[in-house]
């Protein structure tokens, strides 16, 4: 069975948006972005841990990590119907954002990233 659409036997990191290889953060990033775009946030959250130890940027300003953004968006969806699950996701999102902040290359960048972690944390229920 071939590993690619063109019939070659080269291995593929991702067979679909929900099948990322844990050994390939770039493939995981692609899968998370595709799942989020398709509105499949629950599935995207399952791949967040594969984005690497410091995550990847979500937007052009590189302030919020992709993992934190996906976790926060899913928590926002769950908050009205399952506040406890949302709280867990907000905690994970803030943690992902703090890891992303640790990889900042300047003080200002780190402060901006930590501010987003604090903003996400503030959504948690006490």
Give an account of the 3D structure:
With 126 residues, the chain is an all-alpha fold. The chain has one domain (25-121). The chain is built from 5 helices and no strands. The protein has helices at 25-37, 41-47, 66-78, 83-102, 107-121. The model is unreliable at 1-18 (pLDDT under 50).
Short description:
The chain is mostly helical and 126 residues long.
Class inferred from helices and paired strands: mainly alpha
Largest β-sheet summary? none
Radius of gyration: 16 Å
Give the amount of beta strand, in percent: under 5%
Number of domains: 1
Low-confidence stretches: 1-18
Average per-residue pLDDT, rounded, comes to: 84
How do the helices and strands line up, and which of them pair or pack?
Blueprint: H1 25-37, H2 41-47, H3 66-78, H4 83-102, H5 107-121
Give keywords.
126 residues; mainly alpha; 5 helices; 54% helix; globular; disordered N terminus
């Amino acid at each position: 069975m071939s590993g690619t659409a063109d019939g070659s036997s080269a291995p593929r990191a991702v067979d679909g948006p929900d099948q990322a290889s844990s050994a390939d953060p770039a493939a995981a990033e692609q899968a998370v972005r595709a799942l989020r775009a398709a509105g499949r946030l629950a599935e995207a959250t399952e791949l967040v841990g594969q984005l690497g130890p410091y995550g990847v940027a979500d937007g052009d300003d590189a302030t919020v990590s992709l993992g934190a953004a996906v976790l926060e968006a899913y928590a926002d969806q769950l908050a009205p119907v399952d506040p406890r699950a949302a709280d867990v996701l907000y905690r994970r999102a803030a943690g992902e954002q703090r890891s992303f902040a640790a990889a900042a290359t300047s003080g200002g960048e780190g402060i901006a990233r930590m501010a987003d972690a604090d903003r996400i944390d503030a959504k948690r229920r006490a």
